[in-house]
Amino acid sequence: MPDRTVIIDGHAVPRLLYGTAWKEDDTQRLVELALRQGFRGIDTANQRKHYHEAGVAQALATVFASGLITRNEVFLQSKFTFAAGQDHRLPYDPAAPVATQVGQSFASSLEHLGTDCLD
Fold first, then answer.
1. Is the Cβ–Cβ distance between 73 and 40 less than 8 Å?
2. Beta-bridge partner residues of 45
3. Which residues of 64-77 are buried (b: 16+ CB within 10 A; e: fewer)?
């Protein structure tokens, strides 16, 4: 595929993203492998029931430290999941207004992923 990105609202977005759901203890290894094989888009979520954002962070840190790629070369996205889709490990206060829950989840994702921004 000669053009690996598509422009959306002026932003280059990889045509394919590596999904990190259901990887659990293998998340770090598999995300590292995906990045080494050429993926430049990573999809995760702040939903510990199915995703392990800290494992994604470990993979990113390892690959960045190796010099293979930099943070600017990776499109990193996460998602908000309502309480009904979560297990007991909620990343927000379920009694808070939804807008507050989203903000808390976003802040938690930034911390889990070891970054100051999501794409």
1. yes
2. none
3. beeeeeeeeebbbe
Four-residue CA torsion sign, 14, 102, 19, 37: positive
Q: Render pLDDT for 71-100 as a digit per residue (tens, 0 to 9).
A: 999 999 999 999 999 999 999 999 999 999
Contact 34, 74 (CB under 8 A): no
Q: At 12, list the tokens.
A: 């280059």
At what angle are helices 27-36 and 53-66 packed, to 10 degrees?
40
Asked whether 76 and 13 are in contact (CB, 8 A), the reply is: no
| Strand ranges for the chain from DSSP E | 5-8, 11-14, 18-19, 41-43, 75-77
Beta partners for 42?
A: 18, 76
pTM higher than 0.90: yes
Q: CA–CA separation, 11 vs 58, rounded Å?
A: 26
